[in-house]
């Protein structure tokens, strides 16, 4: 390499419990250059950069700056060395002003009193250096997301900043905001900052990075100058193993292919979330919405469940045009939903598995008597316990939080089986579940379709799509960019389309 | 059709032979032990304690708090508070005693009940429609209705004639307030543990986001909860006015704290989602027995307040430690 690296990591290993997620990784970041870090979910990207930024400790390995080994004990130690990680989630203090947020944690103070004027002067300096103009006295809560991210970057630039790490910074940004971020990164490069840039998007790599590094299953599998790397080469490195397609081929059409769609979207839009989306799913069919976080795929699925209003175009369920104002309307129309954030959106942690499963069906369980008893809930629970292979004590009263993630997911799925939903909306169904449970969830979703439900799966995991979908719709930034059916659904086609690269 | 989802579940199990695993002890077991210890202690210390009439006294003493605590448990299970109950009771009482002479008892009672429901309606409206936090809403209402009671009653104690039903002992010498309390507890017990509405309240308290996503119209359900709390205020207001034969601006001062004490002592989590009416009854009796017993032992009432305060903190502290232990074990 022509330029001597500023930061070099050697032989970094890290295990969580018994599982080693980084198997001795080497990485170099040169000043004034962008190193793009790619890899699928769980490849170890975030773990690696958190170790570099002092947020996690490596089990073994060495991190050297300018050739001198350092013990990056914690975040404060890393910051003192000029290494700063800008997280994907914004972590600002919304009610405070832009200026106060920029100096947050490093207030210019005299004898314990913060000096207001000095605060503004310093904030102004940093923003000028970034080449952006933001209202210093406005509360950050009044800014747009992209602007808040700039404030985060500005904060990272106060004091010494020699290596900046971005973790998927554009995931939630608009095109214009992304452009502005790229300009800022070009400026940082010119100032000699070493940049590590985690992304899922190939087009960004070729746009701003000098080098590209692909991580897979805790190993570096590709490290190449961007100029020398081909897109195909990068995709192949990321995907590695071939993911077999186990879903139905085109010939074995879904049983309900001749029936009218159970759910249909016609040019549907919802605010800023998605625009002009068309989709239909027949009984027995599994349709996937594939897209990265922020692509709008989840939001389209959620709109079918009444979580977002469809404000242009139309939503039809069961052949009838509907306007859902509340998920209760969707449930009444026969739609069920496995939400993306199970802990926050689906689970009643402190309540029993039976109660969790019975929740949408209480009215039916109560029947004419109007009474819901634990016994009746237990009957409903037992109906699905074995069929879904829920692994638990044989006790309907067991609190749901005592089950593993995959089994919790099965209870939530059972909730809609009991309810008899004709349209199932699944958002990120395999997020945070282990490999074994993943297969069981696939099996359960397929059975759901075979029983005549129309299934819509929104996911950012191509494996879900390849395993399940009869048809797949790829979304980028709130719009549909590609559609595949049957055997045309492949990993390369999907990731290519979602990365904004559509093969001719 | 899928063979996995449609196949018959394994041959019908004999429910009684099914392994129950470790049956969890009821959440309130610790408190129940404490209550029994209290009873044993006082029955040893005072010969009057186990007397039938004395139990009538205890029940009468906790009746007002108990009626309100039933609704308080329902609300707290959904993560909601009603601090306006003390003032509400006073307002109901003053409406009753002010209007009874001119309207007659029954119309005045109807008006008083409407007053209680009105307060519940206002609370519910502010919390669910306007979106003001329940603690703040009902704290504001506590001040407003205490003040309005003072304005209407001009700070006087006003007597009421022919309204002494609550002093009756219709059978077995059981005082009327005790009967009312048992009836209210029974109604709330069924409501909370055997109806769809009760299940919804638990779901909302356990996770309001998930509750919405299983089709629960969260605001409507909570609104009804505040309305029920208003109904209990009305009932408690009628009860206390009849017991005293009068009402004044000082009626029910501090009741909201007694209610919260009983509910929390009974094991309902401050963050909602767990808690039972049975627990609240135990919490209620722990406080009632304590103050009754200490009175029998001639302990000054100021010290009784100290004891109640210590008890509350102790109970919640123990609960915290227990939960931390459970989390670690899980």
UniProtKB/TrEMBL annotation, chain A:
The keyword Transport applies. Keywords: ATP-binding, Cell membrane, Membrane, Nucleotide-binding, Repeat, Sugar transport, Translocase, Transport. GO terms for molecular function: ATP binding; ATP hydrolysis activity. This is Ribose transport system ATP-binding protein. Residues 7-242, 258-502 form the ABC transporter domain. Gene3D superfamilies: P-loop containing nucleotide triphosphate hydrolases (3.40.50.300). PANTHER family: CARBOHYDRATE TRANSPORT ATP-BINDING PROTEIN MG119-RELATED, D-ALLOSE IMPORT ATP-BINDING PROTEIN ALSA-RELATED. Residues 246-267 are annotated as: Disordered.
From TrEMBL, chain B:
It is found in: Cell membrane. The chain crosses the membrane at residues 28-49, 55-76, 83-100, 106-127, 134-152, 172-197, 218-240, 252-270, 277-297, 303-321. GO terms for molecular function: transmembrane transporter activity. Residues 1-21 are annotated as: Disordered. The keyword Lipoprotein does not apply. One of its GO terms (cellular component) is plasma membrane. It comes from the Bacteria. Keywords: Cell inner membrane, Cell membrane, Membrane, Transmembrane, Transmembrane helix, Transport. It is a multi-pass membrane protein. PANTHER family: ABC TRANSPORTER PERMEASE PROTEIN YPHD-RELATED (PTHR32196:SF21), ABC TRANSPORTER PERMEASE PROTEIN YPHD-RELATED-RELATED (PTHR32196). This is Ribose transport system permease protein. It comes from Thermocatellispora tengchongensis.
């Amino acid at each position: 390499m022509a330029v001597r690296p500023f930061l070099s990591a050697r032989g970094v290993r890290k295990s969580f419990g018994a599982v080693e997620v980084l198997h001795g990784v080497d990485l170099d970041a040169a000043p004034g250059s962008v190193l793009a870090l790619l890899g699928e979910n769980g490849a170890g990207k975030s773990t690696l950069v958190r170790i570099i930024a002092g947020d996690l400790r490596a089990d073994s390995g060495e991190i050297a700056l300018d050739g001198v080994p350092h013990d990056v004990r914690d975040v404060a130690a890393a910051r003192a060395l000029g290494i700063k990680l800008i997280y994907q989630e914004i972590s600002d203090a919304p009610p405070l002003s832009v200026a106060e947020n920029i100096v947050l944690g490093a207030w210019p103070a005299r004898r314990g009193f913060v000096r207001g004027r000095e605060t503004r002067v310093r904030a102004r300096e940093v923003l000028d250096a970034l080449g952006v103009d933001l209202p210093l006295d406005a509360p950050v809560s009044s800014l747009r997301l992209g602007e808040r991210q700039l404030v985060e970057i500005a904060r990272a630039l106060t004091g010494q900043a020699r290596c900046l790490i971005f973790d998927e910074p554009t995931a939630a940004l608009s095109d214009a905001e992304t452009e502005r971020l790229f300009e800022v990164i070009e400026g940082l490069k010119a100032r000699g900052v070493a940049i590590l840039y985690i992304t899922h998007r190939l087009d960004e790599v070729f746009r701003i990075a000098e080098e590209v590094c692909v991580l897979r299953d805790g190993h570096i599998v590709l490290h190449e100058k961007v100029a020398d790397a081909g897109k195909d080469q990068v995709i192949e490195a990321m995907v590695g193993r071939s993911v077999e397609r186990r879903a139905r081929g085109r010939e074995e059409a879904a049983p309900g292919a001749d029936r009218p769609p159970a759910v249909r979207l016609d040019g549907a839009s919802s605010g800023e979330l998605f625009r002009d989306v068309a989709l239909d799913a027949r009984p027995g069919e599994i349709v996937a919405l594939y897209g990265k976080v922020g692509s709008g795929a989840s939001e389209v699925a959620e709109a079918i469940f009444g979580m977002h209003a469809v404000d242009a175009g139309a939503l039809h369920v069961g052949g009838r045009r509907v306007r859902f104002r509340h998920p209760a309307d969707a449930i009444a129309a026969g739609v069920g939903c496995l939400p993306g954030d199970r802990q926050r959106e689906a689970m009643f942690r402190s309540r029993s598995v039976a109660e969790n499963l019975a929740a949408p069906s209480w009215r039916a369980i109560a029947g004419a008597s109007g009474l819901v008893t634990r016994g009746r809930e237990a009957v409903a629970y037992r109906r699905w316990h074995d069929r879904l292979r829920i692994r638990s004590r044989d006790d309907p009263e067991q609190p749901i939080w005592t089950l593993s993630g995959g089994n919790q997911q099965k209870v939530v799925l059972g909730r809609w089986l009991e309810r008899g939903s004709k349209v199932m909306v699944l958002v990120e169904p395999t997020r945070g579940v282990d490999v074994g449970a993943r297969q069981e969830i696939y099996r359960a979703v397929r059975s759901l379709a075979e029983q005549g439900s129309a299934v819509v799966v929104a996911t950012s995991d191509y494996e879900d799509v390849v395993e399940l979908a009869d048809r797949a719709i790829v979304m980028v930034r709130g719009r549909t960019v590609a559609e595949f059916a049957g055997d045309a659904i492949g990993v390369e086609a999907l990731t290519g389309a979602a990365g904004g690269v559509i093969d001719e | 059709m899928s063979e996995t989802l449609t196949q018959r579940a394994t041959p019908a199990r004999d429910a009684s032979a099914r392994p129950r695993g470790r049956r969890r002890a009821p959440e309130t077991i610790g408190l129940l032990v404490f209550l029994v210890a209290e009873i044993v202690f006082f029955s040893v210390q005072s010969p009057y304690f186990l007397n039938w009439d004395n139990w009538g006294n205890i029940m009468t003493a906790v009746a007002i708090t108990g009626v309100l605590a039933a609704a308080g448990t329902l609300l707290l299970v959904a993560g909601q508070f009603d601090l306006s109950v003390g003032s509400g009771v006073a307002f109901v009482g003053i409406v009753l005693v002010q209007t009874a002479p001119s309207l007659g008892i029954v119309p005045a009672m109807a008006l008083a009940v409407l007053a209680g429901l009105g307060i519940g309606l206002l609370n519910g409206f502010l919390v669910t429609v306007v979106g003001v936090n329940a603690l703040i809403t009902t704290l504001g209402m506590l001040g407003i209705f205490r003040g309005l009671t003072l304005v209407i009653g001009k700070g006087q104690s006003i007597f009421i004639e022919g309204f002494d039903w609550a002093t009756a002992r219709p059978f077995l010498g059981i005082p009327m307030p005790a009967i009312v309390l048992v009836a209210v507890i029974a109604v709330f017990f069924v409501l909370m543990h055997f109806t769809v509405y009760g299940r919804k309240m638990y779901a909302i308290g356990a996770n309001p986001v998930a509750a919405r996503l299983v089709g629960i119209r969260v605001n409507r359900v909570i609104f009804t909860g505040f309305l029920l709390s208003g109904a209990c205020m009305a009932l408690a207001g009628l009860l206390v006015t009849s017991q005293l034969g009068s009402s004044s601006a000082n009626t029910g001062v501090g009741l909201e704290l007694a209610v919260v004490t009983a509910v929390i002592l009974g094991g309902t989590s401050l963050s909602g989602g767990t808690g039972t009416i049975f627990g609240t009854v135990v919490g209620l009796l722990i406080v009632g027995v304590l103050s009754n017993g200490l009175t029998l032992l001639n302990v000054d009432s100021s010290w009784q307040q100290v004891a109640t305060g210590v008890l509350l903190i102790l109970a919640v502290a123990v609960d915290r430690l227990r939960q931390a232990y459970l989390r670690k074990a899980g």
